[in-house]
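Please check both lines for our workbook:

___
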Amino acid sequence: MSGDTDSRAQTVSFCLHPVPGYGLTVNPMSLNDDLPNWIPASCTLPSEQQPLRVAEFDDLFRDCVIRVDRAAPTSLRLTLNPGDEVAARVRDLVARETQCCSFFTFDLSPAPHGLHVQVQVPPEQIAVLDAFTARAERLAA
């Protein structure tokens, strides 16, 4: 990796506020963008970590996703660049995501010119998949 800065870096905003006896603390972070937020209320990831997880998916969408196909309201297929490093990155990210949002199902499989990630949600989580898909479509390479 070169020393150049990445012009695609995600902006995360936060505010410091005084807390007696503790000094300054950071308010929960929020993504500073106009893209839909797909984090559901049922997510068990601590709220201060949620923007970081969204940023990880955003980076994956920017760096690796070459096609987004919404086959059905409860199903999405992402086509990603090929490679063992990409596959390992996806496996790690989706394993952590299903720990806090267990309704997601992610299946990784080889594709002719890359990798497919099949994303499934139950009918009551279609709005989450809608927002997830919108972010992927807007950020994909």
